[in-house]
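Order emerges. As here.
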Amino acid sequence: MKAVGLTRYLPIDDPESLLDVELPAPVATGRDLLVEVRAIAVNPVDYKVRSPKSQVESAPRVLGWDAAGIVKAVGDRVTLFAPGDEVYYAGSIARPGCNSELHLVDERIVGKKPKTAGFAQAAALPLTTLTAWEGLFARLGISRTGGDAGASLLLINGAGGVGSIAIQLAKQLAQLRVIATASRPESTRWVRELGADDVIDHTRPLPDQLRELGCPEVDYVMCMTAPEPYFGAFAQLIKPQGKICLVVEAAGPLPLGSLMRKSVTVAWELMFTRAVFETPDMIEQHNILDAAADLVDRGVLRTTLADQLGPINAANLRRAHQTLEQGHVTGKLVLEGF
């Protein structure tokens, strides 16, 4: 089968950082689905895993954790899907990624593709939808049926992939007041189109801008970028007994003590946790993706596909990685077809 892989971890401008390769076709066993991949999306996790280091792989390593495709075969313990089903999923970072014509994935972290979405539109959704859904409703404990309607949520990096879904979930399901950060005219337009009530600039002091909005403290914060530049402000802008969810790993220690006086809860969200540790509730990701697909089909959620970069090959994936590394992408980058 065709795939895009790496054997050395190189800067993305090196033509050997990602390579077109031929690999043996995998075989589905147990709870695995064998999926014919039709479209993929690229996320920051891809370039972070690929980032330069001295490690050398004896066989090509395949990256990629966002896919939509068609089930070709199923393992002997599969109960949720059958050959011919159209699916979408993010997969597990502990296994080979989906930048390949055929891919194995555990059925418990796979959803039925939205019927109204094409493969490219669907591929843009899984990783960010799972992250946003788990972050808002599991880690922050926000009611997704309106039980916290009117509460305030600050989304840092609102125009990114996770933020683009979180805005929609927070508005459409939770009915919160959503304050998103964006720093460019195009990203500001994007988050407003998705439903943000207010937009502030993350390159300027956050507490001052919140005061200008008449909302000096917020009930919830979800930070979808490196937390260090903003963490010092959180003690000022979070309400007593408020909650903060962090999505991106910190490079060093964070001053958690500054939040003690307000009894603030800080939670981490990593959507790979359930799959990597095969937690007892691993199937919840299947349920989330099915629920999200229904919301897409009912017009409640929209795809966050921002740019389609052509077919799945090493050259286009290098371009996608390079664009993401520059840090100015709104929504998701997608490749379709081999």
Observations:
- The two ends are 10 Å apart (CA to CA).
- The chain has ten helices and 16 strands.
